[in-house]
Amino acid sequence: MIEIIGELNNYLNIEALTKDTTLLAAVIIAAVLGVIYCFFGYRCIRFIAAVLGLLAGAAIGRMIVQMTNLEYPITMVVIFVAAAVCALLGMLIYRFGLFLSVFLGIWGIAYSIIAQYTSLDKVFAVIISLVIGVVFAVLSVIYLRPVTIVLTALAGAFIFSDLLFDYLVHIRWSAQLEVIVRLAAGLLLALIGIIYQFVSTRDMD
After folding, report:
1. Disulfide engineering: 133 pairs with which of 19, 30, 103, 111, CB 3.0-4.6 Å?
2. Is 74 exposed, middle or buried (0-12, 13-18, 19+ CB in 10 A)?
3. Concatenated DSSP letters for 50-104?
4. What is the structure's pLDDT at 182?
5. What angle do helix axes 94-117 and 74-92 make, rounded to 10 degrees?
6. 140 close to 99: Cβ distance less than 8 angstroms
7. What string of DSSP letters covers the chain?
8. β-strand partners of 12
């Protein structure tokens, strides 16, 4: 039994992860959101868009504060109002919320892949990932249900896969094999999520 536990510790990074409770909480929350995105993206797109709108609005508010040199407590009011407005827009204006959620999700995934697996400069990686995000976001608005299901399943699956191999699985393969396994796990989970979403949302056409 001791040998088995020791062998598991060689493969899993649980001890390192649990040393930082803040990191552990963030990883758990992100993993849960990834699963929700993968399996319930189309049904929960308004909620997802509201959450992303909240985060985007807070970021916009922070940028406004930094550019205008406002002082506390006005800074907090500006950030709160911007976050609330963007969250409401994401929830109430469905296509805007869909565009926003798909854009942010695909942009994040595209940037992560480009930055990790290519040697492009950071500026070019950001620009290319932004273009990819905009293209897929526009397609999601035009072809609402199928594109939304595919993109949310892919985004959620790869978020979960990245978290799994970054923070939990501690296997040290060759770089090429690790990339293949990581991508294969993400694609398999995405395929399951796509099938589930198409079957469970047939009544929502």
Report:
1. 103
2. exposed
3. HHHHHHHHHHHHHHHHHHHT--TTHHHHHHHHHHHHHHHHHHHSHHHHHHHHHHH
4. 83
5. 110
6. yes
7. -HHHHHHHHHHB-HHHHHT-HHHHHHHHHHHHHHHHHHHHTTTTHHHHHHHHHHHHHHHHHHHHHHHHT--TTHHHHHHHHHHHHHHHHHHHSHHHHHHHHHHHHHHHHHHHHHHHH----HHHHHHHHHHHHHHHHHHHHHSHHHHHHHHHHHHHHHHHHHHIIIIIB-----HHHHHHHHHHHHHHHHHHHHHHHHHHTGGG-
8. 169
* Residue indicated by tokens 């020791």: 6
47 alpha-carbon distance from chain centroid: 14
Quote the crossing angle between the two packed helices 144-163 and 45-68, to the nearest 10°.
70
Give the pair of three-digit tokens for residue 93. Answer: 């204006």
Angle at 185 between CA 154 and CA 31, to 5 degrees: 65
Q: Residue 204 is encoded by which pair of tokens?
A: 């929502």
Structure tokens at 119: 């040697």
